[in-house]
Write a structure and sequence with these properties.
This protein is an alpha/beta fold. The protein is built from 13 helices and 27 strands. 32% of the residues lie in helices and 27% in strands.
Amino acid sequence: MPITDLPRLMVAAASSGSGKTTVVCTLLELLRRRSCQAAAFKSGPDYIDPMFHRRVLDTPSYNLDLFLLGRNEPGRDTACRILGRHGRQKEIAILEGAMGYYDGIGMGSEASAYELASATGTPVVLVVDGRGSALTLAAVLKGMAAFRKDSRIAGFIVNRVKPMVYARYRRAWEGESGLRSLGYLPDMPDCTFSSRHLGLVTASEIADLQDILRKLGDAGRMSLDWSAMMGLARTAPPLSWKEPDMAAPADTVRLAIARDEAFCFYYEDSLDTLRSYGAELIPFSPLHDGSLPDCDGLYLGGGYPELYAQNLSRNGSMSASIRQAIRQGMPCLAECGGFMYLHDYYRCQDGQLLPWAGVISGETYMTGGLRHFGYVTLEARTDTLLLPRGKTLTAHEFHYSGSTASGSSCTAYKAGSSRQWPAIVASGRLFAGYPHIHFSGCPDCASRFIGACRQFRKERMR
């Protein structure tokens, strides 16, 4: 059982919009300036915040999601393993919370940032918005820390507050809440990150991101108590986990993975799980490349294909290449944006129909609101590429688009609710639908996927 001493902190908040990502990027920028080796992690299923982490550190950022990985002991152990593996040899790990600290499934705290902090033994710093509040801020801090006896909340950072206001109220906030202040960030309107329908815009879309990070780093250097934060991080207990008992794969298969502006939503450790079963990941671009690379399987992840609908439609040679490969029996997993791309058509808001990959008979389109949002459990109604009939896997949905062919090979059960609906187009070696999955939480699915790729390679080599 590996054990590592990993100083670590979770940055959490009472609600979304408090500035967690801004504070985390500031901390990572300060660590970079100090040449301090850091690892970054994100609580929950979000893809976009880790992109910001990666742009600051120039290293991958990893998701720790106790629903997708599993809320049982093996799932908690997997979360500790991901944290420990990537944090080992690092001087500190920074974990970014999701939504409100205690917000989990339904009305409970299951799979929340709080539950993750408990599972990993991570001290918590609470980010609070300092605008329009004085002593009441202490009540918020005290209430958050005392809401659960094992809250692990030990300090706070006040965001968007004037320096004079912070200096005036700091002692009152500390005295009344019993928590230590670790500094503040002033209101910096020119350093905000824009949003769209799936949350923040991706880091690669912000042309002046490096300038924003520089300004945040300059502000944080003057206003954050870095030595106190490092001291708090070092109070984290040693981290232990079990390594899975896996035999080395006999051979490798070439798995083409879509990675460009339109398709960019992947969990890094999910990809590592595919590698552990023998996948060599071959990146390609449905936007810019003319055809698939030489490969034995295809993975089309999520993203924003609707923003590049015209360009995807114009690249007819790539559409034909994908269509032909799938019709020949190539295993294909398509999630959300990748699922959308496989449709015959994309319907624009003006009604225009753009031809897409032509694998799934139907059309996809953007709607006026959020269609499905949250965790689901998928149960296979028939044997599929990833799941045998009757078996289940955990997944996450978050999309504003709709489809005339959402599929019915699985039933999706919404976590914390009685709602259910048909999902997944599965025929032959195709598994396509809106749900996102994390292979670290369902290694048997990864084994089936790569096994099918291996079988396809044998067939095409005959």
